[in-house]
Specification:
single chain, about 40 residues, alpha+beta, two-stranded antiparallel ribbon, about 20% strand, NA-bd_OB-fold
Length: about 40
């Protein structure tokens, strides 16, 4: 596998932009905790 193919296999996350402070900076908040299907624990 070439280097460009391995770099593109990244995990994609959906989030909400919390604040944008300037041209190149922003803060993103995303939910990543999912309850366990059987035990319902995060």
């Amino acid at each position: 596998m070439s280097e460009s193919q391995t770099r593109n296999n990244r995990k994609e996350l959906l989030g909400i932009v919390r604040s944008k402070t300037g041209d190149k900076s922003l803060k993103v908040v995303y939910e990543y905790k999912v309850p366990h299907p059987l035990y319902k624990k995060e």
